[in-house]
Amino acid sequence: MKNRIRRLGSNGGRSRASDGARPRTLRMVSAGLILREAEGRREVLICQRKADQPMALKWEFPGGKIEPGESAEQALRRELNEELGITAEIGEPVAQVRHNYRNGGAVDLQFFAVRRFEGEIDNRIFQEVRWSEFESLPGYDFLAADIGLVRDLAEGRIALEGGR
Ligand SMILES: Nc1nc2c([nH]c(=O)n2[C@@H]2O[C@H](COP(=O)(O)OP(=O)(O)OP(=O)(O)O)[C@@H](O)[C@H]2O)c(=O)[nH]1
After folding, report:
1. 142 confidence band (pLDDT: 50, 70, 90)
2. I want to staple 114 with a disulfide (CB 3.0 to 4.6 A). Which of 34, 54, 55, 74 is the partner?
3. pTM (2 decimals)?
4. Ligand 1 centroid – CA 40 distance (Å)
5. Does the CA dihedral 88-52-107-28 come out positive or negative?
6. For the Nudix hydrolase domain, which residue ranges apply (predicted)?
7. What is the pLDDT of residues 38-77, one digit of tens each?
């Protein structure tokens, strides 16, 4: 089944009144929902940020900033290689989220399904990486921008077929 690209809840990139006129730089980011199916259970790979990073120890989906001249898919392939040592085949776009963080940073996140990759997952930058069933995702302390997506995945509002 094909999903439409969803523009998800979050705070929709709106500023709060208290933010005043401070200009925000919008970071364009792509992230991967790396999927696997194990004994009939669908799982997705989640990653925990390190203690010394901003938004320390929060969970997120692997990925990162789109560099000038890159497509979102190219950026994600590069990031997944740098962060996890895999060569990934980027699947369909699943969701797009705009979020303004309280510290003044704004992100535009594009999430893609990833069902196939070459190489073994090698944790190169995270505190921890872990496979999680969709239903268990809300139990992790995710970055604020991801919470709407996490809930939609857990509650089956976004149907994704599993991976290898
Ligand atoms: N990879 C990833 N980034 C996310 C997610 N949700 C979310 O808000 N982000 C934000 O998107 C940005 C990702 O860029 P990045 O990975 O290159 O950035 P970073 O935290 O290393 O920051 P820096 O490079 O500015 O120091 C971060 O600000 C991160 O907080 C997510 O699920 N995955």
Report:
1. very high
2. 34
3. 0.89
4. 31
5. negative
6. 25-155
7. 888 999 999 999 999 999 999 999 999 999 999 999 999 9
CA-based nearest residue to 160, from 43, 30, 76, 45? 43
Distance (Å) from CA 58 to ligand 1 centroid: 11
Give CA–CA dist 156/161, Å, rounded. 11
Q: Residue 35 above 70 pLDDT?
A: yes
* Closest to 32 measured CA to CA, from 69, 81, 70, 68: 81
What DSSP assignment string belongs to 112-136? EEEEEEES----SS-SEEEEEEGGG
From ligand 1's centre to the CA of 84, what distance in Å? 15
Name the residue at shortest CA distance from atom 5 of ligand 1: 60
Atom of ligand 1 nearest to the CA of 54: 20
Task: Tell me the C-alpha distance between 27 and 67, whole Å.
Answer: 10
Which CATH number is correct for 6-16+23-154, 3.90.1300.10, 3.90.79.10, 3.10.20.30, 3.30.530.20?
3.90.79.10
